[in-house]
Structure formats: C-alpha cells, structure tokens
Design a protein that fits this description.
Strand content: 15-25%
Structural class: alpha/beta
CATH class: Alpha Beta
CATH topology: Rossmann fold
Oligomer: single chain
Helix content: 40-55%
Length: 152
C-alpha cells in the first residue's frame, strides 16, 4: 500500500494485517551539475525499488512518502528528524520500520536508527528502462523481500 488516499483507506480497514512500513531515504544536492544528475538518478532508482517492494509485499507493508534530505546536512540532525518520522509512524501498530537508501553514509549510523536500515550499493547512472536494469532491480527486490520477510 502506498501513501495515497485509496491505499490509506484500505490500510485503515486492514491495519491489523499490515505490520511493516518502508521509508525511502533520498539525498538531494544541487551544488554542482554532476551531483544533480547522480542524485536525480538515485532518487528514481530508490523510488522504483520502493514501489516494486511495495508491490511484492502488498498486504503486509505500507510505503511511506520519500524522506528527502540535503546530502551535506549534519547527519545527527537528519537522524533525529528521521527518528521523529519513525516515532510518528509507530503511533500506528507497525511492528517493523524499514529505511531504504542507496547512500552509504547512513551505514555508519545504522545502530542509531529507530528502525532497520536497508542499504544497497547504488550505481551513479544507467538506463532504468533497459531490460538488463529491470532484471537487476528485480533481483534486488527479491533479495530485499526475503530480508524483510525474515523479520516477520
């Protein structure tokens, strides 16, 4: 289920079965053209992965809105904000909160999250519409799905 009105209505009616939430973490940086392109690509990729995971795990997971942060911002401040999101999410009966990111800088803060960090190494560019990329994404979705299910 996604953070859309029709899905949220379904969620409210069946919340006892939906015990997990997925929060995509996406960096945003405009300091130079190379970073803009990389961040836009990684945003698309993260969004695609999150949507595919939501499809794969429909009925058990709610896909939260993307959490955008400025890549050069103080990580401890961002971590506090992200954990505030997580505490807000936990007001619903979610047993599991997963945070999906391609940004390796979050890995060293993994223990400080109030949820489970799902970090994937990411590419900096590519054709997200190519058949090869779809196979690669499908493989990642299957692996992430298995990992998430192991927490259930």
């Amino acid at each position: 289920m996604k953070w859309e009105k029709s899905d949220v209505i379904q969620y409210i009616e069946a919340k006892e079965y939906i015990d997990s939430v997925l929060i995509p973490l996406v960096p945003y940086q405009m300091d130079n053209d190379a970073n803009i392109e990389v961040n836009a690509f990684q945003s698309e990729w993260t969004n695609l992965l999150a949507n595919e995971l939501e499809k794969e795990l429909t009925g058990r997971i709610l896909l939260a809105p993307i959490y955008y942060y400025i890549k050069t911002a103080d990580r401890s401040e961002e971590l506090s904000r992200i954990n505030a999101w997580i505490e807000e999410v936990k007001q619903q009966p979610f047993n599991h909160v997963f945070i999906l990111t391609l940004d390796p800088a979050w890995k060293k803060h993994e223990q400080a999250f109030a949820g489970t960090l799902l970090w994937l190494s990411g590419m900096k560019s590519g054709d997200l519409k190519s058949a090869e990329m779809h196979r690669f994404i499908r493989d990642q979705v299957e692996q992430l799905s298995e990992l998430i299910q192991s927490y259930w």
